[in-house]
């Protein structure tokens, strides 16, 4: 068993524990251990925030408008479509937009390149990775990371429209300076930036999954919270994603109003648009799944939401395969999935757009393989969204 397999199995076991698994004494002991780590982590996070609030740690200010988009929890809020919508709208209004990402689980720069920069004491060190310059995609998903590659591919210039640059670096202050100097960016979108306090945002956008806002209310690693819930007071706009009009939304709104009276609340939903072949630009209407036998494969934080889409579209899921979030597929895994899907009589193979960028070469003689394209739709608070866009464009 490889180290990657061990780490993924440990991650999966931890997820099961924090989701309530309690089969034996080992499970209970491990949960107590996670709880103790969670308390320590929460205190460290809050101390760090206090240091920034009291100017004991420095926040950098760059010479352009910075918009932070992030979560209180780990994954599952549907952040990437919101970043895409925001970037496309701003670019359409004439802003020079660059997205700054840390490139989670992307390949680091070659060791020799990093060593050379350090030995030569180069002022800026190793430059950030440019996933897209706005005109074309320059890196693949393994080098860039899943979400940056998706954003770069969907936001390149088309039909005379202005494209969006995508820059990856753990040091997003450095990434922001690079985007300003090389792409003349006047608007920086800080992807997954709610906890990135070194770069001061002009607008803080917080995403909350309305179907599971704060999981079990515990911080990592005993829960999914990255920081205490009370810190949502930093948000200027709160996007309630996966909204379905349920009565629980009224309670959520009241809770947010008590914690943060100044924040604008925007309800939105992620809606399937079409199916696209994982290898080509061929698209199919969603209705093609109605009454069909479907095999689903995914490695995302909340696979149930993806599978529920397929069921709602009339598909019958005859086989499903789930991996941990951001899993990078091996060829053997894909072969096994396709073989089992065929044995179960699947007529279509379907995955998510994020998973599609991580697939190895496809085997031959398999059913049609598509990814489900999902886009954000604002259900309420559209005026607040447009005011946010105007506020940025008039800066």
TrEMBL record:
EC number of this enzyme: 2.7.1.130
Any one Gene Ontology molecular-function term assigned to this protein's record: ATP binding
GO CC terms in record: plasma membrane
Keyword flag Ligase: no
Biological processes annotated in GO: lipid A biosynthetic process; lipopolysaccharide core region biosynthetic process
Name of a matching Pfam family: LpxK
Enzyme class: transferase
Binding site for ATP: 73-80
Coiled-coil portions: none
UniProt xrefs under InterPro entries: LpxK (IPR003758), P-loop_NTPase (IPR027417)
Catalytic activity line of the entry: a lipid A disaccharide + ATP = a lipid IVA + ADP + H(+)
Domain of life: Bacteria
Keywords for this protein: ATP-binding, Kinase, Lipid A biosynthesis, Lipid biosynthesis, Lipid metabolism, Nucleotide-binding, Transferase
Pathway: Glycolipid biosynthesis; lipid IV(A) biosynthesis; lipid IV(A) from (3R)-3-hydroxytetradecanoyl-[acyl-carrier-protein] and UDP-N-acetyl-alpha-D-glucosamine: step 6/6
Functional description taken from the UniProt entry: Transfers the gamma-phosphate of ATP to the 4'-position of a tetraacyldisaccharide 1-phosphate intermediate (termed DS-1-P) to form tetraacyldisaccharide 1,4'-bis-phosphate (lipid IVA).
Family that this chain belongs to: Belongs to the LpxK family.
Record's protein name: Tetraacyldisaccharide 4'-kinase
Organism encoding this protein: Oligosphaera ethanolica
Source species taxonomy: Bacteria, Pseudomonadati, Lentisphaerota, Oligosphaeria, Oligosphaerales
């Amino acid at each position: 068993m490889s180290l990657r397999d061990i780490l993924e199995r440990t991650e999966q076991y931890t997820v099961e524990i924090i989701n309530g698994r309690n089969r034996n004494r080992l499970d209970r002991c491990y949960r107590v251990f996670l709880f103790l780590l969670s308390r320590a982590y929460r205190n460290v996070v809050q101390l760090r925030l206090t240091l920034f609030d009291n100017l004991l740690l420095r926040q950098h200010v760059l010479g352009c408008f910075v918009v932070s988009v992030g979560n209180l929890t780990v994954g599952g809020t549907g952040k990437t479509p919101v970043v895409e919508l925001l970037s496309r709208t701003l670019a359409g209004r004439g802003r020079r937009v660059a997205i700054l990402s840390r490139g989670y689980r992307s390949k680091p720069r070659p060791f020799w390149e990093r060593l050379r920069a350090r030995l030569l004491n180069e002022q800026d060190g190793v430059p950030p990775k440019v996933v897209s310059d706005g005109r074309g995609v320059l890196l693949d998903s393994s080098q860039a990371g899943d979400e940056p590659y998706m954003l770069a591919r969907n936001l390149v210039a088309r039909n005379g429209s202005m494209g969006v640059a995508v820059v990856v670096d753990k040091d997003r202050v450095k990434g922001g300076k690079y985007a300003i100097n090389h792409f003349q960016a006047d608007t920086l979108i800080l992807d997954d930036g709610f906890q990135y306090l070194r770069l001061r945002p002009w607008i803080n956008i917080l995403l909350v999954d309305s179907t599971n806002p704060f999981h079990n209310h515990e911080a990592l690693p005993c829960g999914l919270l990255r920081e205490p819930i009370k810190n949502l007071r930093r948000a200027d706009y709160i996007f309630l994603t996966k909204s379905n009009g349920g009565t629980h939304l009224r309670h959520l709104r009241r809770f947010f109003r008590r914690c943060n009276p100044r924040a604008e609340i925007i309800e939105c939903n992620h809606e399937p648009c079409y199916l696209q072949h994982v290898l080509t630009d061929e698209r199919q209407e969603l209705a093609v799944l109605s009454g069909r036998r479907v095999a689903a494969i995914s490695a995302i934080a909340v696979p149930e939401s993806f599978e529920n889409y397929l069921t709602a579209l009339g598909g019958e899921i005859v086989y499903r395969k789930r991996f941990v979030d951001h899993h990078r597929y091996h060829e053997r895994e894909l072969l096994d999935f396709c073989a089992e899907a065929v044995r179960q009589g699947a007529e279509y193979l379907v995955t998510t757009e994020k998973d599609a960028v991580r697939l190895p070469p496809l085997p031959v003689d398999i059913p049609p393989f598509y990814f489900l394209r999902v886009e954000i739709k604002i259900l309420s608070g559209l005026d607040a969204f447009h005011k946010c866009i105007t506020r940025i464009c008039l800066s």
